[in-house]
Design a protein that fits this description.
Blueprint: H1 2-23, H2 43-54, H3 69-82, H4 84-89, E1 91-95, E2 99-104, E3 114-119, E4 142-143, E5 146-148, H5 156-171, E6 180-185, H6 196-205, E7 212-221, E8 233-240, E9 242-251, E10 255-256, H7 265-278, H8 286-295, H9 301-308, H10 310-322, H11 325-328, E11 334-341, E12 348-349, E13 352-361, H12 367-378, E14 383-387, H13 404-417, E15 423-429, E16 445-453, H14 455-458, E17 467-469, H15 470-486
Parallel strand pairs: 3-6, 3-7, 7-16, 8-15
Antiparallel strand pairs: 1-2, 2-6, 4-5, 5-17, 7-8, 9-13, 9-14, 10-12, 11-13
Helix pairs in contact: 1-9, 2-5, 2-15, 5-15, 13-15
C-alpha cells in the first residue's frame, strides 16, 4: 500500500512537471520591422528576364564530354546584357572558365564581407517525360502568373534574383559599407568540384573571412511537409550531411547453376544487404532537437507536450521520426542500396558479385567511421568493403543559429513576408549543396532559398513541370535586396 502511494505521488509529480514544461514551452515574440526598401519590383520585367534565363539549357552531365559550352556562353552574355550596371560597377572573375565571381566593393574595409551563392547549372530532363510537361522544360513560358521551366526554383531564380537586387540598388545609387560577393558555380548538380570548389580555393588563398555565406538548401514550407505543423516554417540549413558509397564484393569459384553451393557470391552479398537494412545507424537527435525546440511550441496539444518534454519523450520522438523516410533522414546516417550485380547469364554462378550502398553521413561521423560500422554489421571476412571511387564527401561544419549573422537572415525573411505566423527554424540539410566547399571561409554558412513549397510543388524540383509563381519570384528579388541592406550598418 505504501509503495502504491509513493508511486501515485511520483506519477502526480511527473504529470505536474510535464504540464509546467508544456505551458512554458512558448514561441518568442516576433517583432517585424518594415522593409528597408519598400519600392515596388517590376514583376513583368523581372519575370521576363528569368524566363529568358531559363531558355539557356545549362545542363550538367556526368559525362563531361557533353558539357553544354554554347549554352553557358550564351547565358553569360545574356547576364551581361540584362544587368549592365552590375557589369559596369562590380568586378567579375570567371573561375575555371564558367563559374562567376562578382565583387561589389564596400566603403568600409574593416567590415567582413558577405557572400551570396547560387548555381547556373540545371539537371537534365528525361526524354521519356518531355510530353508530360505542360510547357516545354526550357521554354521559360509565363502563363497564369507562373514561370515554367528547368531552373525556375533550382536555381536560376537565385542567380537572377541576386543580380536583380544588386542592379536595382545600383540604379538608386546605393553603396554598401561591406563588400558583397556573388558566387555562381557551374556544376553544382554534379558535385561542384570544378565550380564552387575552385571559387572557394581562390577566396581562401586571398585570406577572406566572411560575415556570412548564404546558399540554397532550405525554403519556406507549408502545411503537409512537417508532420503536425500547420504554420509556415522557413527552414534555414545550418549544416548538411556528407555522403559516401561503399562497394561490397564477394568472390567465389563460379560454375554451372545446376550444382549451386549453399550460398552463391550473390547470395552472400544479398545477406549483407539484409543485415545492413535491418541494422540502421543509431539516431542522432541533435539537429532535430534544434528544429523541434523552435517549432514545437506552435504545434497541437499532444505534439507540443511531447516536444516540450524531450528529456522524457526522446525515445518516442526518435521512433516517430524514424517511421518516415523524410524525417528519418534528419536523425541518422541513412543506408540506401542502389546497385547490385551477379553473373552475366541466368545459368552461370557468379564468380564475383558486388553491391553499391550509398550513405548520407550525419555531422560528427566520417566516411571511414561509416565503413567501420558497415564492416561490423556485416561481420563476414568473405566480403570486401571499399569506398567507391576512393572518395567520401564529409559532412559540413555546423553553423550557429543564435548569432548576429543568423539574425540578419531571419530579419530579412520577416521583412519580406511580413508574416507573424511564420517561424524561422534551423535544420539539417539532408542533400548536398555547393556550400560544403566553403567550409573555413565563415563560421556562419547558411542554406536557404526564398522559395515557397507545398508537398506538390516540392516534388517538381528536379522533376516534371518545375515552376515558380511570378509573385514568389518578386519576393526572391526583395529578399536579396533586404538581406544586402540589412547586412550593412545604416
Amino acid at each position: 500500500m505504501k509503495l502504491l502511494k509513493v508511486a501515485g505521488f511520483a506519477l502526480i509529480a511527473l504529470i505536474l512537471v510535464m504540464g509546467v514544461k508544456t505551458l512554458t514551452f512558448t514561441l518568442p515574440e516576433v517583432v517585424i520591422q518594415p522593409q528597408l526598401d519598400a519600392s515596388e519590383v517590376d514583376a513583368q520585367a523581372v519575370a521576363g528576364r528569368l524566363s529568358k534565363g531559363i531558355q539557356f539549357a545549362t545542363i550538367s552531365h556526368m559525362d563531361e564530354s557533353q558539357f553544354e559550352q554554347q549554352a553557358f556562353d550564351g547565358f553569360h552574355q545574356f547576364l551581361a546584357n540584362s544587368f549592365p550596371l552590375v557589369h559596369q560597377k562590380l568586378s567579375l572573375e570567371r573561375v575555371n572558365g564558367y563559374s562567376l565571381l562578382y565583387r561589389w566593393q564596400g566603403s568600409d574595409a574593416q567590415l567582413k564581407p558577405i557572400l551570396l551563392m547560387s548555381h547556373q547549372d540545371v539537371v537534365p530532363v528525361d526524354k521519356e517525360t518531355r510530353d508530360r510537361w505542360v510547357h516545354a522544360p526550357f521554354s521559360g513560358a509565363i502563363a497564369d502568373g507562373i514561370i515554367w521551366g528547368r531552373g525556375a526554383v533550382d536555381i536560376k531564380s537565385g542567380v537572377l534574383g541576386a543580380l536583380e537586387a544588386v542592379e536595382d540598388l545600383l540604379a538608386k545609387g546605393y553603396q554598401p559599407q561591406r563588400d558583397v560577393y556573388l558566387a555562381f558555380g557551374h556544376d553544382e548538380e554534379i558535385g561542384g568540384d570544378n565550380g564552387a570548389a575552385k571559387i572557394s580555393a581562390l577566396l581562401k588563398a586571398r585570406g577572406l573571412d566572411f560575415q556570412f555565406i548564404l546558399d540554397e538548401g532550405g525554403s519556406i514550407v507549408g502545411d503537409g511537409i512537417i508532420p503536425g505543423m500547420e504554420r509556415p516554417v522557413a527552414l534555414v540549413g545550418i549544416a548538411e550531411k556528407g555522403y559516401v558509397s561503399l562497394r561490397l564484393t564477394a568472390k567465389a569459384v563460379g560454375g554451372h547453376s545446376s550444382m549451386p553451393p549453399k550460398h552463391t557470391a550473390l547470395g552472400v552479398i544479398a545477406q549483407a544487404i539484409v543485415d545492413l537494412e535491418q541494422h540502421p545507424f543509431p539516431a542522432n537527435m541533435q539537429y532535430s532537437r534544434q528544429l523541434f525546440d523552435t517549432i514545437g511550441p506552435a504545434m497541437g496539444g499532444l505534439e507540443k507536450a511531447i516536444f516540450a518534454n524531450m528529456w522524457l519523450t526522446e525515445p518516442l520522438v526518435e521512433r516517430i521520426l524514424s517511421g518516415s523516410k523524410t524525417t528519418n533522414a534528419a536523425v541518422r546516417t541513412t543506408t540506401a542500396v542502389t546497385m547490385a550485380q551477379g553473373s552475366s547469364k541466368d545459368n552461370v554462378l557468379p564468380s564475383e558479385s558486388h553491391a553499391v550502398v550509398n550513405f548520407r553521413i550525419m555531422p560528427g561521423e566520417t566516411g571511414e567511421s561509416v565503413k567501420a560500422y558497415v564492416e561490423s554489421v556485416i561481420d563476414n571476412p568473405e566480403i570486401e568493403v571499399t569506398i567507391e571511387g576512393g572518395f567520401a564527401g564529409e559532412p559540413s561544419s555546423v553553423s550557429k543559429s543564435n548569432n548576429d549573422s543568423f539574425a540578419m537572415l531571419k530579419d530579412a525573411i520577416y521583412r519580406v513576408t511580413q508574416d507573424e505566423n511564420l517561424i524561422v527554424a534551423p535544420y539539417l540539410v539532408t542533400g548536398g549543396t555547393d556550400a560544403k566547399h566553403y567550409t573555413g571561409l565563415s563560421d556562419s554558412i547558411y542554406r536557404f532559398a526564398f522559395n515557397r513549397f507545398t508537398p506538390e510543388t516540392l516534388e517538381r524540383m528536379h522533376g516534371i513541370n518545375e515552376q515558380i509563381k511570378v509573385d514568389d519570384y518578386v519576393d526572391v528579388v526583395k529578399f536579396f535586396r533586404e538581406l544586402i541592406l540589412g547586412a550593412n550598418p545604416s
